Amino acid sequence: MKLFSTRKPRQYRRVSIYSDESHDRLQKLVDEVKREQGEMPASDKPYDSDKFRGTFINYTPRAQRHKEGGSKLGWPLAIALIFALIVIWRFLLTGVR
Q1: Would you say 24 and 49 are in contact if contact means Cβ atoms under 8 Å apart?
Q2: What mean pLDDT is reported for the chain?
Q3: Which member of 24, 75, 87, 97 has the greatest number of CB atoms within 10 A?
Q4: Are residues 87 and 79 in contact, defined by beta-carbon separation less than 8 angstroms?
Q5: pTM for the whole thing?
C-alpha cells in the first residue's frame, strides 16, 4: 500500500567545483604506481590539468592587468597630491594671496 508510505529523500552528492591539489597529487601518484605495476598501459595518459594552468590569463587582457598589479602612476600621483594639498593648506593658513 503505497499511499501511506513515505519516500526516501535523495542522497546528497557533493560535487566539488574547485580543484583539490592534494587529491590531484595523490591521484597522479596512484596512476604512476599502476603504470609501474603494469595495470595501466604507459601510453594511456590521464588528463593533465597542469598543462592548461595559466592559459586563460594569456587570452584575456583584463586578467593580465589584474595579475600585473595596480597602475604605474600610483605612488608619484599620491606624492604630488599630498604636496599640492600641503601648499594649499599653507596659503590658507598664512592668508597670502
Answers
A1: yes
A2: 80
A3: 24
A4: no
A5: 0.30
